[in-house]
Amino acid sequence: MTPYKTRINRVLDYMEKNLGSNLTLEELARVACFSPYHFHRVFYSQTGERPFELLQRLRLEKAAFLLVSRPEKKIIDVALDSGFTNAASFSRAFKLSFGISPSAWRERESINSNLSIGSGNSGQEDPSWIPYIEYRQGVQLWRMRKDNRERIVEVKEIYPRKLAYIRYTGPYKGDGKLFHRLWTELYTIAGARDVIDGESEYVALYHDNPELTDDDKLRVTLGISFQREFAGDETLGVMTLDGGKTAMAHFRLNSREYQEAWDWVYCQWLPLSGYVPDDRPAYELFPFERKDEGDGRHPVVICVPVTAAS
After folding, report:
1. Beta-carbon neighbour count of residue 155 at 10 Å?
2. What are 129-177's pLDDT values in tens digits?
3. Pairing of the two strands 139-146 and 149-158
4. Do 67 and 109 meet the contact criterion of CB atoms below 8 Å apart?
5. Which fold has domain 157-308?
6. Among residues 39, 68, 191, 210, which is most buried (max CB within 10 A)?
7. Residue (of 108, 111, 107, 76) closest to 91 by Cα position
8. DSSP letters along 236-256, please?
9. Same fold for the pair 3-114 and 157-308
């Protein structure tokens, strides 16, 4: 990453963690270590959006997600949680962006979500997975079985982790060559800085909802957890991956099977679970040793931060 890109990534991380706050240009410029005058220009050159255009987009996309995933929330509470000061300004901005009112969006998308549950690519209803639930030392363990298949989902509290990371913005779905290039870049940079150790975890963090965000604006962060003292530099950023209750679904996947696995978590397991996603980003977690057992598949854990459904 260029020095400017690293600084702007730091601002984007700050925005995401403070969407509900009244952020100012001066505050964002300080995070980037630029003067407000230069920050505005540098931000646009790196993102293609002006700071408050992008901030508004992130707030609206968060609101669109919350309207459907948290149906018990009043629309005014969704507006306030997403950084809007009142219902009127929120409704105007939402309709301008999505073409319909927040209440109409909630109704339409909730119907679409319910229709998709249990549906495979053919559009036919998928036979139900049968859950078997255990509790082990604070961990809720789901064994989901259908025919002779079993999938395991753990729900547990995880601790915050520091990530050394690089970030990519643009289309990425199903692009195995892109991810191979990005992982190689991350390994090379992090290895040269002695960030990787025997307890490092590898994370692909998805910041945006592909159903809401244009492909050229989708962001994915590839990170390595670390424990030593390292504050980041011009090529390798540092961020905190928040802890909290997380559903961790275990798979073995090849590059063509990721979308089906994500769909299974959201459409098959989640509606049965008694949980809803919260607004922390979901991510993929890869073991330190990604062994291929000869079938082209590697172990992957899809991690979805969750909270109890009301």
Report:
1. 22
2. 899 999 988 899 999 999 888 999 999 999 999 999 999 999 988 788 8
3. antiparallel
4. yes
5. Multidrug-efflux Transporter 1 Regulator Bmrr; Chain A (3.20.80)
6. 39
7. 76
8. -EEEEE--EEEEEEEEEE-TT
9. no
At 1, is the pLDDT very low, low, confident or very high (cuts 50, 70, 90)? low
Q: Confidence band (pLDDT; 50, 70, 90) for 2?
A: low
Class of domain 3-114: mainly alpha
How would DSSP label each residue in the chain? --HHHHHHHHHHHHHHHTTTS---HHHHHHHHTS-HHHHHHHHHHHHSS-HHHHHHHHHHHHHHHHHHH-TTS-HHHHHHHTT-SSHHHHHHHHHHHHSS-HHHHHHHHHHHHHHHTTB-TTSSBPPPPEEEEEEETTEEEEEEEETTEEEEEEEEEE--EEEEEEEEES--TT-HHHHHHHHHHHHHHHHHTT---TT--EEEEE-S-TTTS-GGG-EEEEEEEE-S-----SS-EEEEE--EEEEEEEEEE-TTSHHHHHHHIIIIIHHHHTEEE-SSPPEEEE-SS----SSS-EEEEEEEEEEE--
**Tokens in use for 154?**
């753990």
| Closest-CA residue to 19 (of 74, 78, 89) | 78
**Rounded to 5 degrees, what are φ and ψ at 246?**
-140, 135
Q: What does the domain layout of the chain look like in residue ranges?
A: 3-114, 157-308
Locate 18 and state its tokens.
């403070």
- pTM comes to 0.79
Tokens 């790196």 belong to 46
The tokens 């959006």 sit on which residue? 49
